UniProtKB/TrEMBL annotation:
One function term, GO molecular function aspect: antiporter activity
Localization, UniProt: Endosome membrane; Membrane
GO CC annotation terms, alphabetical: early endosome; endosome membrane; Golgi apparatus; plasma membrane; synaptic vesicle
A Pfam family this chain is assigned to: CBS
InterPro entries: CBS_dom, CBS_dom_sf, Cl-channel_core, Cl_channel-4, ClC
Membrane spanning stretches: 20-44, 105-127, 147-167, 207-231, 243-260, 280-302, 322-341, 393-413, 420-439, 467-492
Organism: Muraenolepis orangiensis (Patagonian moray cod)
The protein's name: Chloride channel protein
Gene3D superfamilies, per the entry: 3.90.1280.20, Clc chloride channel (1.10.3080.10)
SMART domains attached to this UniProt entry: CBS
PANTHER family noted in UniProt: CHLORIDE CHANNEL PROTEIN, H(+)_CL(-) EXCHANGE TRANSPORTER 4
PROSITE patterns noted in UniProt: CBS
Topology of the protein relative to the lipid bilayer: Multi-pass membrane protein
Length: 708
């Protein structure tokens, strides 16, 4: 009885562990990805400032932290404090003058080159999979394709380190896409601890979907946006259970990041803004124009970037990834330093562009002419004429816009971790701020015009340029990635601007429509196509009337299908079949004459089973018969011991008949993430359809279709 009760207690514990394992995995993913994101944020802040100078009181402080701790900092000169010295001050003692400028310039470029060289070298030597954004590959993995080692421990470690280096080098890239990859690596790592997930690909994919949500949650401090991003953009199959778990993982990740508090302002994001003015119906016109700009930029960027990446693949350029990264980093640093808006990190630039000009702002963008009799409340400063600082800032912003547009095309897709969210948002935010200032000045100088008369009285605060920057950022990001719902949610979680949902929605939808007019694929789908990954897009419709028999292999002119029989194939034949082909698996039939289908055996399992039997099982030789039935076949008395492999046989492979419409087959492949499907007629095996065959057929039909 005692033994029985012990067993039952153990069984109860085991069943509880099994039930809770999913939530435990989510908790661990959230904790690790939140911690890594916090560390990355802190390291990027410090290393970005290291290019310009160093903190004497504690060298591990960034510029901002250094001046926080100083007692000599005044509010007007909050960026200047004796503890923080530029490199020129440190070496020559002069902070102003031509010599100091040249020295700072040189060191800025030197640091940028060093960081980018370290990043690309680490990726090349230790983890080639750590390059790029990672989202196209994760979409492909979640659709049922396996890329071995893509989510491994080395990739996780190197991606985290090189992401810090790449962002700090000042290249035009963000850390958001790679953080999704990092979170998915965390998910894969914790899956291997639980047999429930490590043995089951389907369950593992559900965990990775949730991990992607945690990645976006820490990248933007937007937990709900992360869940919606995973649902809309990354995941292939998203049941309700995964939705809850994604929500939990995103929550834990955001909570962990908040506990680390990398920005020191108790916010999860760098650009948190609070606007106090409402928006007016007439402003929808510039918002929609920004949406059109975002769509055009998205379509242009995808075309140009894919053309450049294709060129990289097909010419000598692809052989020298290190040189390419160093060249782009050098050009970026040389062109970025003279312009104060491109010299700083892109996140800080976006933060300044989103900012509303309060009474306490010291930014050049807030250099307005104040009327002498104006009382200065902290809030709701009326519209004012622009001062000289605003006009010079506009010129610099226009140059920064051109620079960002061009350099991002060459940066995305190099052999270093590179995200696309931040550069796209920067392009949109610059364009939006320029439009916002233009509208604001028009409203100030022409407040008697009919469009301004209803809502813009003299002395009122009507137009918020920062809001235009926010809408522009959303439009450009939508144009490149084709997100809509998750984009709007991420934007208002990111900025805390809940009352601006309508302008954001208008811009996001417009940019998607405009960009879709030039091409249906977003940047991630385009990169999937460019790399030739077998990915069936859920959004593509297949309306042709072909049948499974038209697509299946082997065709008439091809050799017959490579099959195994249930009880008459020798070990030597099996080894020859494995060696002579590179198929993913082999159908098992009763005999070559009847060709009745029994099941399907995976190549990996077969190789392992034969190898293990050769080493460990007595009497298994080259002439031994392999059998997949329950009972051994009747063999002559002097024949060697047969090898039973029934345990690795899949007795329920997916089959369709030769008359199944391809529309149904495509749906089956999509919904179940299949890699292959067998074609039969009344139990007889006729052929096989793989995912690549389906993709090839769809591409052929698209090209032949007269309607498109």
């Amino acid at each position: 009885i005692i033994i029985k009760s012990k067993e039952s207690v153990w069984e109860l514990i085991k069943s509880l562990l099994d039930a809770w394992s999913g939530w435990v995995v989510m908790l661990l993913i959230g904790l690790l990805s939140g911690t890594l994101a916090g560390v990355i944020d802190l390291a990027v802040d410090w290393m970005t400032d290291l290019k310009e100078g160093v903190c004497l009181s504690a060298f591990w402080y960034s510029h901002e932290q250094c001046c926080w701790t100083s007692n000599e900092t005044t509010f007007d000169d909050r960026d200047k404090c004796p503890q923080w010295q530029t490199w020129a001050e440190l070496m020559t003692g002069h902070s102003e003058g031509g010599g100091a400028y040249v020295l700072n310039y040189l060191l800025y470029v030197m640091w940028a080159l060093l960081f980018s060289f370290l990043a690309v070298s680490l990726v090349r030597v230790f983890a080639p999979y750590a390059c790029g954004s990672g989202i196209p590959e994760i979409k492909t993995i979640l659709s049922g394709f396996i890329i071995r080692g893509y989510l491994g421990k080395w990739t996780l470690l190197i991606k985290t380190v090189t992401l810090v280096l790449a962002v700090s080098s000042g290249l035009s890239l963000g850390k958001e896409g790679p953080l999704v990859h990092v979170a998915c690596c965390c998910g894969n790592l914790f899956c291997s601890l639980f047999s429930k997930y490590s043995k089951n690909e389907g369950k593992r994919r559900e965990v990775l979907s949730a991990a992607a949500a945690a990645g976006v949650s820490v990248a933007f401090g937007a937990p709900i946006g992360g869940v919606l991003f995973s649902l809309e953009e990354v995941s292939y199959y998203f049941p309700l259970k995964t939705l809850w778990r994604s929500f939990f993982a995103a929550l834990v990740a955001a909570f962990t990041l908040r506990a680390i508090n990398p920005f020191g302002n108790s916010r999860l994001v760098l650009f948190y803004v609070e606007y106090h003015t409402p928006w007016y119906m007439a402003e929808l016109v510039p918002f929609i124009l920004l949406g059109v700009f975002g769509g055009l930029w998205g379509a242009f960027f995808i075309r140009a970037n894919i053309a450049w990446c294709r060129r990289r693949k097909s010419t000598q350029l692809g052989r020298y990834p290190v040189l390419e990264v160093i060249a782009v980093a050098g050009v970026t640093a040389l062109l970025a330093f003279p312009n104060p808006y491109t010299r700083r990190s892109t996140s800080q630039l976006i933060s300044e562009l989103f900012n509303d000009c309060g009474a306490l702002e010291s930014s050049r963008l807030c250099d307005y002419v104040n009327s002498p009799n104006m009382s200065r409340p902290v809030d709701d400063i009326p519209d004012r004429p622009a001062g000289p600082g605003v006009y010079s800032a506009l010129w610099q912003l226009a140059l920064a816009l051109v620079f960002k547009v061009v350099i991002t095309i060459f940066t995305f897709g190099m052999k270093i971790p590179s995200g696309l969210f931040i550069p796209s948002m920067a392009v949109g935010a610059i364009a939006g701020r320029i439009v916002g200032i233009a509208v604001e000045q028009m409203a100030f100088h022409h407040h008697d015009w009919i469009i301004f008369r209803n809502w813009c009285r003299p002395g009122a605060d009507c137009v918020t340029p920062g809001l235009y920057a926010m809408v522009g950022a959303a439009a450009c990001l939508g144009g490149v990635t084709r997100m809509t719902v998750s984009l709007v949610v991420i934007m208002f979680e990111l900025t805390g601007g809940l009352e601006y949902i309508v302008p954001l929605m208008a811009a996001a939808v417009t940019s998607k429509w405009v960009a879709d007019a030039f091409g249906k694929e977003g940047i991630y789908e385009s990169h999937i196509q460019l790399n030739g990954y077998p990915y069936l897009d859920v959004r593509d419709e297949f309306t042709h009337r072909t049948l499974a028999a038209d697509v299946m292999r082997p065709r008439r002119s091809e050799p017959p299908l490579a099959v195994l029989t249930q009880d008459s194939t020798g070990v030597e034949e099996v080894e020859a079949l494995i060696k002579g082909t590179d198929y993913n698996g082999f159908p098992v039939v009763v005999s070559r004459e009847s060709e009745r289908l029994i099941g399907f055996v995976q190549r990996r399992d077969l190789t392992l089973a034969v190898k293990t039997a050769r080493q460990k099982q007595e009497g298994v030789v080259s002439s031994s018969v392999v059998y997949f039935t329950e009972d051994p076949p009747l063999l002559p008395a002097d024949s060697p011991q047969p090898l039973k492999l029934r345990r690795i046989l899949n007795l329920s492979p997916f089959t369709v008949t030769d008359h199944t419409p391809m529309e149904t087959v495509v749906d089956i492949f999509r919904k179940l993430g299949l890699r292959q499907c067998l074609v039969t007629r009344s139990g007889r095996l006729l052929g096989i359809i793989t995912k690549k065959d389906v993709l090839q057929h769809m591409a052929q039909m698209m090209n032949q279709d007269p309607e498109i």
